[in-house]
Amino acid sequence: MLVIPRAVTYVAAAPLAFAGTVLAGVAVVAARVTLLGSLALAIDRALIQARPFAEVTPLLVVASAAGLAELGIRVLGALAAARLSTRVLGQVRARLVAALVELGPGWLRGQRAGRVQATVGDGVEALQGYVSAYLPQLAVATIAPTVLVLLGIVIDPPAGLAAGIAAVLLPLSKPLWTRLVGDRSRAHWEAYATLSARMQEALAGMPTLRLLDATGDRRAEIARDTERLKRENRSGLAISLIAYCLATVAVGLGTVVVTVLAGLGLVSGRIGPLTALVLVLGVAEVFRPLLELESFWSAGFRGRAAAEAIDEILGAPRPLVMSAGSEVSAGSGVVSGGCSASLGGPAVRFERVSFTHPGSAAAALVGIDLDIAPGETLALVGRSGAGKSTLVHLLQRWYDPDQGRVLVNGQDIATIELTDHRHRIAVVSQDVHLLGSTIRDHLLLARPDAEDAMLLDVLHRARALDVVAGLPDGIDTPLGERGARLSGGERQRIAIATAFLSGAPLLVLDEATSALDGRTEAAVMGAVADLRQGRTTLLIAHRLSTAAGADRIAVLEAGRLLEVGTPTALARSGGRLADLVAAQVVFA
Ligand SMILES: Nc1ncnc2c1ncn2[C@@H]1O[C@H](COP(=O)(O)OP(=O)(O)OP(=O)(O)O)[C@@H](O)[C@H]1O
Ligand SMILES: [Mg+2]
């Protein structure tokens, strides 16, 4: 049987719908048994006892009613199954999204985004057949045959036992299959997810692939992955077919044995003609639910592997997420105030922070001790790979430090509810993904109740009104996926407008490495200068001019903090900053 423990918790999302689906399955068997039983009685009365037709008619009416009832029950069962799958899939999707949000970009980075996408999309879809067809049928195939076999044993022990043995042999042969097939289902999913991830990577990296003239290599890899998936598909089908054939043979043999036993019983006088008829007609009903379960095998096969992939995401260790309403220290000016918030900016403190990226041999940060005063702008500078982004990611809780703590207003951020914490940080960079299909959609994410006047105000403060003016439908112009229609500098100004709107008091600025044209650069710099007012800012600086505008500069090298001080003090000290400036390696 293709059952995984987590499936039970999925089904628990809609216990009534599950019970309804199972009940309908059992009721179908009951209706068919009633139909066959009344037919057997009718045949017995009409042909064997040669009773008047009037005595047979009621039985035929019962048989017809049972047939009609079966149809009705099947419809109700289908409705219950549909409700079950809608509920379960909805809940699983919601749990996956919540898990991915809590796991955050740090976790997603380590995974293949394509695999996660395959799981969240097709994986959840694959669960549909598993949850709404396979699992309920598994329950029906356990309950109905058991009851019928017991009835059979009461009616005629030899035939009942024979049917029982055949019915038990069918599922008992399963563990063998499950071991074989279980692995295959995993291999099938593996092949599918790999291909899916590869396709997505290739699509996302198309410009790079073209540049490197590597599309041919990628195509060959994709062809290999496709071949592997085809093989897995084929072997899955073959196994399914063999299993179904074996089941049919077992059922056929069981039916033959019961029929022969009934015949012998009739000849020897052990049972009467009615009992013989009931046995011969009824034996099919013992096996029907089991055969139906076999026909759902494919749904079970795909669903089980998908459920395991979903499990991996749901079960991944998450950063501490406290219950809603956990305390956020006073004065942080969290979103509530929106763009009119009275900001002071919180104090930030990195306390002996060390961190190594998962799977990486070298530490990205070692024993960082750094204080940022409320409202201060601190520029981080250092060579590529020095750990600037990592430090900022720790502040955003993409990751938690291996050692040490990050404090905001004296509170360890690991003890603050994750969403509250992330709400009070605004990130401005050229890589900011514009979510939502239009600029309005994206802005409203930061403040759903913002009115047009407020949106125009923040766009004005972000020097982004000209960006909007250049679009055919203004802020309602469709932007394409991730804001593809906008340039880096334009996206950056939309990010600044979003930051104004959210009122987040802590600002992370990732300066663009590529130069903007003079006018755009001036616009962005002006908007950023306004945005920094009243906020505590951590700025990743790539240019001397930007770093020089900060209150203090922190120089990182190979994950260590070399020096911190005001731009003038550091330039004068002749220390590492002066070296880096002289060597022109920091400010590329
Ligand atoms: N996801 C990751 N997995 C493993 N190692 C990583 C990961 N991200 C960064 N690193 C490593 O951590 C170190 C610090 O990287 P980080 O991105 O913080 O540098 P940076 O100072 O931001 O560099 P740049 O100026 O090039 O952006 C580097 O050695 C890098 O190779
Ligand atoms: Mg970086």
From TrEMBL:
<keyword id="KW-0067">ATP-binding</keyword>
<feature type="domain" description="ABC transporter">
    <location>
        <begin position="348"/>
        <end position="583"/>
    </location>
</feature>
<dbReference type="GO" id="GO:0016887">
    <property type="term" value="F:ATP hydrolysis activity"/>
</dbReference>
<feature type="transmembrane region" description="Helical">
    <location>
        <begin position="237"/>
        <end position="265"/>
    </location>
</feature>
<dbReference type="Pfam" id="PF00664">
    <property type="entry name" value="ABC_membrane"/>
</dbReference>
<keyword id="KW-0813">Transport</keyword>
<dbReference type="InterPro" id="IPR039421">
    <property type="entry name" value="Type_1_exporter"/>
</dbReference>
<dbReference type="InterPro" id="IPR027417">
    <property type="entry name" value="P-loop_NTPase"/>
</dbReference>
<keyword id="KW-1133">Transmembrane helix</keyword>
<dbReference type="InterPro" id="IPR003593">
    <property type="entry name" value="AAA+_ATPase"/>
</dbReference>
<dbReference type="GO" id="GO:0005886">
    <property type="term" value="C:plasma membrane"/>
</dbReference>
<feature type="transmembrane region" description="Helical">
    <location>
        <begin position="161"/>
        <end position="177"/>
    </location>
</feature>
<dbReference type="GO" id="GO:0140359">
    <property type="term" value="F:ABC-type transporter activity"/>
</dbReference>
<protein>
    <submittedName>
        <fullName>Putative ABC transporter permease/ATP-binding protein</fullName>
    </submittedName>
</protein>
<keyword id="KW-0812">Transmembrane</keyword>
<keyword id="KW-0472">Membrane</keyword>
<keyword id="KW-1003">Cell membrane</keyword>
<dbReference type="GO" id="GO:0034040">
    <property type="term" value="F:ATPase-coupled lipid transmembrane transporter activity"/>
</dbReference>
<dbReference type="InterPro" id="IPR011527">
    <property type="entry name" value="ABC1_TM_dom"/>
</dbReference>
<dbReference type="GO" id="GO:0005524">
    <property type="term" value="F:ATP binding"/>
</dbReference>
<comment type="similarity">
    <text>Belongs to the ABC transporter superfamily. Lipid exporter (TC 3.A.1.106) family.</text>
</comment>
<dbReference type="Pfam" id="PF00005">
    <property type="entry name" value="ABC_tran"/>
</dbReference>
<feature type="transmembrane region" description="Helical">
    <location>
        <begin position="138"/>
        <end position="155"/>
    </location>
</feature>
<dbReference type="InterPro" id="IPR036640">
    <property type="entry name" value="ABC1_TM_sf"/>
</dbReference>
<dbReference type="InterPro" id="IPR003439">
    <property type="entry name" value="ABC_transporter-like_ATP-bd"/>
</dbReference>
<feature type="domain" description="ABC transmembrane type-1">
    <location>
        <begin position="19"/>
        <end position="299"/>
    </location>
</feature>
<keyword id="KW-0547">Nucleotide-binding</keyword>
<feature type="transmembrane region" description="Helical">
    <location>
        <begin position="12"/>
        <end position="43"/>
    </location>
</feature>
<dbReference type="InterPro" id="IPR017871">
    <property type="entry name" value="ABC_transporter-like_CS"/>
</dbReference>
